[in-house]
Every structure is written in structure tokens, then in C-alpha cells.
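Why run this: before we spend reagent on co-expression, it is cheaper to look at a predicted model of the complex and decide which construct boundaries make sense. The entries below are exactly what would go into the expression plan.
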Amino acid sequence: MNMSVRVSPLELNARATRVAVVAARHADLVDSEGRFPHEAVAAMKSEQLLGIQIPRSLGGEEASTAEIAEICTILGQACASSAMVFAMHQIKTSSLVEHGADSVWHAGFMRRVAGEQLLLASATTEGGIGGNMRNSICAIAVDGDTCRLEKDATVISYGAHADAILITSRAHENAAPSDQVMTVFLKDQYALERTQVWNTLGMRGTCSDGFLFKGEAPAEQIFPKPFAEIAAQSMLASSHLLWSGVWYGISADAVARAQAFVRAAARKTPGTMPPGALRLAEVSSLLQMVKSNVIAGLKAYADAKDDPDRLSSMAFSVAMNNVKIASSETILTIINHAMLICGIMGYKNGTPYSLGRHLRDAHSAQLMISNDRILANTSTMLLIHKQDTSLLG
Amino acid sequence: MNGTIRELLAKFGGLPVPASEITDEADLYAAGLSSFASVQLMLGLEESFDMEFPDNLLNRKSFASIAAIEQTVRMILDDRKVA
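The model came back. C-alpha cells follow.
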């Protein structure tokens, strides 16, 4: 008997909170050692969080992007690397859910992702493309029922720990760089040779090493739709929104620490306003702005989701780009403010008010898809698209 | 109109193949039309036909092929005649 019951967001959040407890316990070690957050990802699997986006008919829970963003925020408050791994997995899952449902192989794969809690990684970056994932140099070779691909993937986040990799390439040997497809390769269908080691300022636990990827798989594992469509219709929005969920979580925890610092000072000196109190009020307003920005973006995506024309419109791209720019920039201001409030206790590692990890992790936000690239893209669109001036529209 | 669109495509499209070799129905994005080039093409069309693209037509579909562009431009010009 197939009893599919709608899971309540509260129940999802309770499961995410249990994962966050595990993630928080190991966050400092994951950061200092630059190692994969095994414990948190194992907890995600045991709480069955990796398949929640997949349709119920394929064994998932049909969680919405907003529900998943909320989980990103819950995890982001505990361990940004764990939260980012979860977000990136869900971004790949959204490609399957939105663009793979009509393909027998991809539908079957979704059932496996939900049933076996498979962790999906992404390989869109390539040496020589200048960071533009909408171009590929490598091309997939289809030979009868088999496809083969070799890619100099300069970044595959948690590539060594994934159960499958979704990888982009040119559609065939003679295709233009922008004529791309995406293919799913399972762990036993590829070999990875590490070419670069992820030793970074922050987000150290995502282990986004570079690899030479060599894979061979049945050709039916190539997505039936062009990657351009996948990128425009599900990846753009889900990346900016879920990343922003993580970033909001990092900054929300920084503010919570700053507030705890101010409250502790207030309790020690009753009758006087602690020095950081005014700044706390200021930072609370900034945090609310980031939150509103992410919520507005989630709503815009939910409203446009069933209309491919709207999803590929300039208005929608501009709106999603703006969510990413604003949240990635503002969180740095917020965490810096929180550090001014906590002072040396925030600057030092190992105190209840430490903010070094938050600040370092948050610095990745402007770089993962460079804000300069996004602004250039938006500025091009604004030559022709007229800025939306409505309040609610 | 088809000729003007082709001229503008040749001028702004930045395609690796000559515009004359592209069929009316061919997918321009697959042929290598970048988002920057597509906007330059749109600006060229606005200037040539003295019109503005409304935001609801600024999506990939409206500019996916020469035939689609022709249809989009014709629709805007026809609407103007009615108005």
C-alpha cells in the first residue's frame, strides 16, 4: 500500500534541526581541518533529507523550494559547509525534478536518490572557460548506446564524497561552446584524478577540489533537454535562492551571537545600555532586509515556476540576480557589524561569540558565481528590460 | 523584414558561422548567440523598426530563431497599428 502523506514543514524543520545539532558539534573541526562534514551528511541521510524534493510518486516528499531554503538556513546557522553541501545537492536535484521527470532513466534515478539517499555533486566548471558555466570546452561522445566524457573540472564540490555527479559538456564534437548537455554519471561509472586541492579561506568543508573526470555510461543518462534550458529554468533560481538561504543562516547566527553578547552585558550592568546595543538594533534591521529579499525571491520563483516563458524572461533573471547580489553583499556587512558588537570576543576563536568562521565562510558568497559576472549580466539585460517599479508585482 | 533581421544578426550576433548559413528555424542559442549579443540584437531591432519590446516578450522563446524574431517584431508592429 502506498500511503503518501503530506509532510508538514514543521516536521521537516524538526528533522533539519536534529541534523543541525550534529553539524554544529563538528563545525569548528570541519573548518580547521578543511575536511568533509561526514557526520552532518550522514545525519542528513538518516533523517532522509536528501530526497525530500523528489515527487512523492518516486519516493520523495515533494518539498517546495521555500521549504528547502528554510532547511538551508537552519543548517547554515550551525555549519555553513554542511549547509552548502545540502544546498548544492538540492540544486542538482531540482534539475532532475524539473527536467528529468519525462525520461524513464532519470525518473528511475530519482527513485534511487530518494530510496538510497544518494548525494549528488555538480561539475559545471572547467579549466579554460573563464568561470562561465554556460560554455563548455569538453564534448560528450556518444557511441551507440554508450556515452563517454573527459573533463578538466577545476572544481567539483565534495566530488570525492558524492554518489553521482551531474556534469556539463558540449552536446557533441562539433557543437558550439554554448550548445551544452548535462549527464548523470554514477560513482561506479567515473574515475576522478585530483588535480587541485581546496585549501581556502572559508567554506573549507565543501572540499571543492579540482579533478580530471573520466566517465563512461549508458547514453540514456544524458538529460533529454539542453543544458541552456535547465540552467535558465531551474538552476539559476534554485542556486541563488538556496545559497541565499545558507547565507542568511550564517548571518542570522552571527546576529544571534552578537545579541547574546549584548544581553550578557546588559544583565551584568542593570540600568545602563551596553555599548553594542545600538549597533545590534542596526544589524537587526539589515538582517530583516536580507530575510525579506530571500522571501521575495522565493515567492517570485513559486509564482513563475509553472510558466517556462516567465522563468526564462529577463524580468525573472534580473530579480534572481538581484537576490544573489544583495544577500551576498549584505551578509558581510552584517557579520562585520556583529564583530564590532562582540569585539575581541568575536575576533577570538573558541569563545561563545566567535565570528571568524562566519566571516570567512560568508566571503565565499560574492565569489561563487562572481558578483561582477552577475552584475555584468544584469547590466546587459537592463539595456532592454525595464526595471519593475511595482511594490507587490 | 527577414533581410533586416539577418543583417542585424550578422552585425551583432557574434556567431561562429555566417548569418546567411542559418536557416529561419535554426536555434540561435545553440548556434552560439550569447545573452550579450542577443541584447545588442534586440537594441538593433528596436532602433531599426522604431519600437520597444514589452517586458512580457523578453524571454528566450521570442528570440530563439530568425522566424521567432520575425514573429515577435511583427506582433509588436501589428499591435501598434491597431492602437
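The two ends of chain B are 21 Å apart (CA to CA). The interface with chain A takes residues 16, 29-36, 39, 42-43, 46, 53, 55-56, 58-61 of chain B (CB under 8 Å). Bring this page to Monday's planning discussion.
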